[in-house]
Write a structure and sequence with these properties.
Porin; about 50% strand; transmembrane; alpha+beta; endosome; about 425 residues; transmembrane helix
């Protein structure tokens, strides 16, 4: 038994070494076209129960893995595209994708493993086939762009860990080859940038970052063009993230306030008859998506959805927040919505978005200029304050003037009596 267990461990270790050295190429095809292609190495850290204890093993995706044509699809029937790789007796790795028209992302990461496979799971006290799923793992890129991440990157999937490395991936492909335009992950960018250091006579240490509280964010101008090149969405606003995440440096959950920098941000999106989207991407580390919905019966529109993907250097894992049931920034078709006052748009308990000096028009844009604005209640209230104060002062002056005239008349009448 000890010999077989040692042999199993040796086999697993051998697979792990091969998995780190060799990348597997996987393709999902429909007819003669390729819609998903991935070149990657993957390893899985899986914990299972034996008859006497709990054991954790490292399993790698072998180069013999193949695409399961029955489960994989391009999603042309309206379902989500899926890439499912199978290996061994009942093991599988699955990635499903979603898109908002400008950006695609891994919507779900699925791992399936068969505990009856004694070569991977010796002495397991169960023969179950286990499936674990994780949503919004933070792998995304613009459409017609290859996502690239050479650095090992770990994702929590249920109670297990999946680590990808040497990854090049593209979904919703227009051709059969990966796009030469690449979206590089934050880990790869960080690995090429040396941290600042301070040197003393005895030691050299890495200087910790000094947090700087942000002021009001700079106002950015963004637009979206439709297929014929004309502007269909206009937006001007300053944006500020209020976000809670687990910090690597502090090893605890922190609340951070971060401004979006307009000159480092690109915009894209789409315009349809009853929906419009604006996607803001800052250095591939932050992607913020807005979805606007138009009610054709009432000719009223509103901000119905906000999605945030963030993968900042101090985050222990990529952050994502999504709410598609919002009812903010309400206005009328043919008019823009304007709010100069600071607003807080609550998306999830861990994320809210502060807006400053905002004006947006997602529908009915006829020129490159905003239409007449409908102002938010806060701006209207702020306009009423000076009017009320002015009216109060005018009333006070009038009261004083009347009192003065009455007093003068009485004084004059007294002199006549004398």
């Amino acid at each position: 038994m000890k010999l077989s267990r040692a042999l199993a461990v040796l086999i697993i270790a051998s697979f792990a070494v091969l998995g780190r050295i060799q990348a597997v190429t996987l393709e999902v095809n429909e007819g003669n076209s390729t819609c998903i292609k991935a070149e990657l190495s993957a390893s899985f850290s899986i914990t299972y129960n034996t008859s006497s204890s709990t054991t954790t093993v490292q399993v790698s995706l072998p180069d013999s893995a193949t695409v399961d044509t029955g489960s994989s699809s391009c999603g042309t029937d309206g379902s989500s595209p899926w890439l499912v790789a199978v290996f061994g007796p009942g093991h599988a790795l699955g990635l499903s994708f979603s898109t908002n028209g400008s950006l695609y992302s891994v919507a779900n990461l699925t791992l399936q493993y068969n505990l009856s496979d004694t070569s991977f799971f010796p002495d397991a006290n169960s023969s179950d086939v286990v499936t674990v799923v994780s949503a919004s793992v933070g792998i995304w890129a613009p459409i017609n762009t290859t996502y690239r991440c050479v650095s090992p990157t770990a994702f929590r999937v249920g109670e297990e860990n999946v680590t990808f490395s040497d990854m090049r991936l593209e979904a919703y492909m227009p051709g059969n080859d990966l796009s030469p335009t690449e979206s590089v992950c934050v880990a790869d960018k960080a690995s090429t940038t040396a941290p600042p250091t301070t040197t003393t006579a005895a030691t050299t240490t890495t200087a910790p970052p000094v947090p700087t509280p942000p002021g009001s964010p700079e106002r950015g101008s963004y637009s979206v063009n439709n297929s014929n090149g004309t502007v269909c969405l206009l937006a001007q606003m300053g944006l500020q993230f209020n976000i809670s995440y687990v910090s690597k440096s502090q090893n605890k959950t922190v609340q951070d306030i971060v401004n979006l920098t307009p000159n480092m941000t690109s915009s894209s999106g789409s315009c349809e008859a009853s929906s419009a989207s604006l996607v803001l991407t800052q250095e591939q580390a932050t992607t913020l998506s807005f979805t606007f919905t138009l009610n054709s019966t009432t000719n009223k529109y509103h901000l119905s959805g906000i999605v945030l993907f963030a993968n900042w250097p101090d985050m222990t894992a990529p952050f994502s927040a999504r709410n598609i049931s919002l009812n903010y920034l309400r206005s009328t078709l043919g008019r823009s919505y304007m709010c100069n006052a600071e607003q807080t748009l609550i998306v999830e308990p861990t994320f809210s978005l502060n807006t400053f000096r905002l004006q947006v028009q997602p529908f009915g844009v006829t020129t490159s200029q905003f239409a007449t604005a409908e102002e938010c209640q806060m701006d209207q209230d702020q306009m009423l304050i000076p009017i009320i104060v002015g009216a109060a002062l005018a009333g006070l002056v009038l009261i004083v003037l009347i009192a003065y005239l009455i007093g003068r008349k009485r004084s004059h009448a007294g002199y006549q009596t004398i």
